[in-house]
Amino acid sequence: MSGSIESKDVDIRGLFQDYYVVPDYQRDYVWGENSAERPIDEVELFLSDIHREFEEHSPKTKTEYFIGTIITCENKSGSYDVIDGQQRLTTIFLIICALRDSLKRLGADTRELDGMISQVSTDSFGKQLKRNRLVLQYADSGNVLDTIISNDIIDEEILTTRSTQNIYNCYRTVESFLFREFDNQKSKLQQFEGYFLECVKLINVETPNLKKALTIFATINDRGVGLDAMDLLKNLMFINATQTQFAQLKNKWKILTDTIYSANEKPLRFLRYFILADYATESRLREDDAYSWFQDHESEIGYARDPNKLVDSLIDAAQAYKNFRESKTPVGEHELGLANIQRLGGSSVRQPYILLLAGRNLQKAQFSELVTLTEDLFLLWLVTKTQSKVTEPAIVKLARLLSKVKPTDHSQFDNFVKHVHEEIIKPKAKEFTRSMMNLHQWDMPKYRMKYILGKLTQFIEQQAFNIKPSNSDLETYLEATIEIEHIHPMVPTEKAIAEFGDEDDGEFYRKALGNLLLLDKSRNSIAKNHHFSEKQKIYTESNFMMSQYLSTAPKVGKADQISRTFENHLIAFKEWSPEMILRRQKMLAKISHEVWNIPLEFKTLPDWDMPNVDENVVITK
User: Fold this and answer.
1) 212 and 252 assigned to the same domain
2) Cα separation of 478 and 21, whole Å?
3) Which of 233-242, 306-315, 481-490 has the lowest mean pLDDT?
4) What is the pLDDT of residue 357?
5) Which site in 74, 273, 378, 411 is 20 to 30 Å from 287, CA atoms measured?
6) How do beta strands 20-22 and 80-84 pair?
7) Are strands 200-207 and 482-486 parallel, antiparallel or unpaired?
8) Residues whose CB falls within 8 Å of the CB of residue 619, separated by 6 or more in sequence, listed in order
9) 603 located within any domain
């Protein structure tokens, strides 16, 4: 073609008079994929929209269906490289294949459809050559499309990649749709064929060269309209790459997307976290704005000079992120603290990963300390119910400070840790104390309350048996066989109520932290709704010191570690009442400051509901 850009309004019949290639640097085929990111089946929706227009179509009321734009560029072989629209074009092609196969089974003439799928020609030596109208060059496409084109039986064992599975699923979806809507009625299906080929239309933008095609792609989809920021960023990298860099860049981009996909993360969320961890100075960045952010900060990142450098950095961050999600350090070593952060945050909390990404280049010991610091910080924010509009800007500021720390300069990292404690943790220390003193089960999800009880219980075990935190897995205290026991039961017997006293006013005491402990399932089922004096016998058989010595001090020598741990941290309760729950809540609140390394600013602990407190009285157990 000439050096100009040509835009043509074409129907499906006209479109597939030419040959198309989806280049090897294109992304996977993802339409119809069943995932949290893609809750809508695009293939089913696409077919339903066309079918709705088809039903309105008549000689008196002709309807057309516009499906958007594709961008192509003619290559040296006379085919057209598909720069934008490969999802749509591949889906259309698969619909043509499914129409052909459905009509062929009904004995219809499918020669036109056959010609739109592939052409057979004879060369000068009399050899017949088959040329498919659509060729997928990217590695993950496998040969599943060729099998569909040949109408051969597909062995599902060959569907080993994301794309092959999605392509096959698309074809099956179309087949099912055609059967459901037309019920093997040949004439009706032929009417749909005619409508699909003639009345479904799109705009084909043909460009003189690849650079121009990529630029138009970016212009049409500017600011994430039409495609998401991940696709646009990929395109931006190819715009700035030389032709010789394409193969390398393509392989790297596949590694990047595969890594994010295997981390079970949304690509746009990852991009946002990458920016916040490595570059941003403030947190007001939406996921959809990630692409425009990269455009606006080229001078800082330098991808125009070397797009591979940015992609390498993205891969490094993605691999570290994937490792974090698997409770591993950036280099893939198991880290118990990372598992604790997941247990604390659950599936919804991701902010800790921003700070961890910012510290992914720290030395091993520094990174472990950062993990512990991050766990402490987020526990503080969750217990004090600090809103994300406060926490995320704070995390981004910390990420910027951390990015300036040289891993070889230990004093810089020590100063960073000191800054977190002095500027963020210490100012909220009193609020943390008050929150722990008023903590009830209704304040947080069950898994998080169990995490808190697990950490408190684990701490006592570590102190008593001199266990290093790095050698003690919290899972021991959180597994399914361990349950939250209500010392004063949720459904107490008359004897339990009588022992507890007249102040039993329902859930306030029963769901208070001071009324909770961890107990193995078998013993918990025995304890049930019994009164405290009966439960004491069951608690002494527990494997956890905090439960075992709830009512009885350890009968060992005074100088041993177990006795010292009990004397320093625990109380033996001979009876159970609201006053004892308050006393135990104070005990646990005091321990919590040691567990999560938060300074205790009160000289005496406040009672329920944060009343005015004389802060000059010395704390006692």
Assistant:
1) no
2) 53
3) 233-242
4) 96
5) 378
6) parallel
7) unpaired
8) 590, 600, 602, 603, 604, 605
9) no
Does residue 1 surpass a pLDDT of 70? no
CA distances from 449 to 316, 334, 459, 514 (A): 35, 25, 15, 12
Domain that holds residue 366: 239-436
Contact 586, 605 (CB under 8 A): yes
Q: Rounded to whole angstroms, how far apart are CA atoms 9 and 17?
A: 14
How many helices and strands in the chain, by DSSP H and E?
29, 10
Residue-wise pLDDT tens digits, 13-55? 999 999 999 887 677 788 877 655 555 688 999 999 999 999 9
Question: Region 58-78: what's the mean pLDDT?
Answer: 87
- The span from the CA of 190 to the CA of 292, in Å, is 46
Percent of the chain at pLDDT exceeding 70:
90
Higher pLDDT, 411 or 122: 411
Distance from C-alpha of 217 to C-alpha of 214, rounded to nearest angstrom: 5
* Residues 488 and 550 occupy one common structural domain: yes
Q: Is residue 453 part of a domain?
A: yes
Residue linked to tokens 């739109």:
116
Question: pLDDT digit string (tens) for 559-603?
Answer: 688 999 999 999 999 999 999 999 999 999 999 999 999 999 988
Using one digit for the tens of pLDDT, what is the confidence trace for 90-123?
Answer: 999 999 999 999 999 999 999 999 999 999 877 6
Contact by Cβ (8 Å): 524, 483: yes
Dihedral in degrees, nearest 10, Cα atoms 579, 581, 582, 586 = 140
Q: Which residues pair with 200 in a beta bridge?
A: 65
Pair 446, 518 in one domain: yes
- Distance, in Å, from the CA atom of 191 to the CA atom of 466, rounded to the nearest integer, reads 80
> What type of residue is 403?
S
How many domains does the chain contain in total?
Answer: 3
User: How far apart, in Å, are the Cα atoms of 213 and each of 18, 236, 516?
Assistant: 18, 12, 65
| Sole residue written with tokens 């600013």 | 601
- Whole-model pTM: value is 0.70
* DSSP H or E stretch at residue 248: helix 246-262
Looking at the structure, tell me whether residues 348 and 264 fall in a common domain.
Answer: yes
pLDDT of residue 346: 85
Q: Are residues 432 and 450 in the same domain?
A: no
Report the half-sphere exposure of 292 (CA within 13 A, side-chain side): 12
Same domain, 428 and 446: no
Separation of first and last alpha carbons in the chain: 87
Whether 361 has a pLDDT exceeding 70, the answer reads: yes
Q: Reduced to 3 states, what is the DSSP secondary structure of residue 483?
A: strand
Exposed, middle or buried by CB within 10 Å (0-12, 13-18, 19+), for 466? exposed
